[in-house]
Amino acid sequence: MAHMEYNVPSERWPVHPETATLEGKNKFVGFWIFLAGETALFASLFATYLALKDSVPGDDHLLAAELFALPLAFVMTMFLLTSSLTSVYAVYHMRNNNFKQMQLWLAVTVLLGLGFLSLEIYEFVEYVHLGHTFRTSAFGSAFYFLLGTHGFHVAIGLVWITGLILRNAKRGLSVYTAAKVNTAALYWHFIDVVWVFIFTIVYLLGVM
Amino acid sequence: MAEIKQEPLSKSKLEYLRTQRTKEMRQQMVSFGMMIFLTFVAFGMVAMDLDSRFVIPIVLFMAVVQVILQFYYFMHMKDKGHEFAKLFIMTGMYFGIAFVVTFLYITWIGSPI
């Protein structure tokens, strides 16, 4: 992108910077196709989880109702929901050609995502101590596969957004970087969409 | 493809765009407030230990509402030019619902094969 114009004055900043180039348009459509595939992927993991929920080999294994704690799930939900809002702020400032604010809100998003991921790791460690692991039961396998795939997506999102912040720090905002930020924000929102179903189906219906 | 093709915007046009974006931000704040509210209600209802036959449908319904808010307001699906996005996501959800219903049926609802 040798001839890319960076940090143009707002009068010349496109109304929709993220789809101002052909590349941006392609990215936009392609990413929605990807998200549709992700929907089917997570749905199959949810189906597996629902089919294998509480399938344990003996009485000495903990079931969902004994395992899950609502307060932790609630705090994790708040972290991820708020980080979704902060990435909305980032896209808002990107469209208003405000590079500094965009970077700031992307950084806040990363911090909140880190908070979420640390809580999830803490949760997994606790469960392993309680004897609920990937290998101890079909319930465990399905649980860790679903939650682990989601957590892995969060980790990828964190690396992705951190990479964008660092890579764009010196070069600033252009229609090229705007499309990248928009795509990362869409991905981050989608992670939150999946989490809404996880906290409802796994945690809320699990403790009942 | 590198250069920006935008015709220079007039001051009033720029001002108008800013107001529109602020308006959209207000909508997004309202939908965020609703999402927080729905989350509180969902956790609260489960914590109160009500009858599960009554709670489960409501909690699932609130999750669907939250996801619609997320898609339409946070991911801008309400804006123009999202026809394909809608089509793709709908297709993904169609398969997703088929997976979940099938698995639930063969393991929990249907008679053993």
Number of domains of chain A: 1
Largest sheet of chain B: none
Identify low-pLDDT runs of chain B.
none
Rounded to the nearest angstrom, the radius of gyration of chain A is 20 Å
- Stretches of chain A where pLDDT is under 50 for at least 5 consecutive residues are none
- Report the portion of residues of chain A in β strands: under 5%
Helix count, DSSP H or I runs of 4 or more residues of chain B = 3
Structural class of chain B: mainly alpha
The CATH architecture of chain A comes to Up-down Bundle
Helix content of chain B: over 70%
CATH superfamily of chain A: Cytochrome c oxidase, subunit III, four-helix bundle
Strand content of chain B: under 5%
Main location (chain A): membrane
Subcellular location (chain A): Cell membrane
Family (chain A): Belongs to the cytochrome c oxidase subunit 3 family.
Membrane topology (chain A): Multi-pass membrane protein
Textual characterization of the structure:
The complex is a heterodimer of chains A (208) and B (113). By secondary structure, chain A is mainly α. Chain A has one domain (17-54, 62-207): Cytochrome c oxidase, subunit III, four-helix bundle (Four Helix Bundle (Hemerythrin (Met), subunit A)). In chain A, 76% of the residues lie in helices and 0% in strands. Chain B folds into two domains: 10-78; 80-113. In chain B, helix 1 (11-47) packs antiparallel against helix 2. The model of chain B has no long low-confidence stretch (mean pLDDT 91). Chain B is built from three helices and no strands. Chain B has helices spanning 11-47, 52-74, 83-109. Chains A and B meet through helix 1, helix 3 and helix 6 of A and helix 1, helix 2 and helix 3 of B.
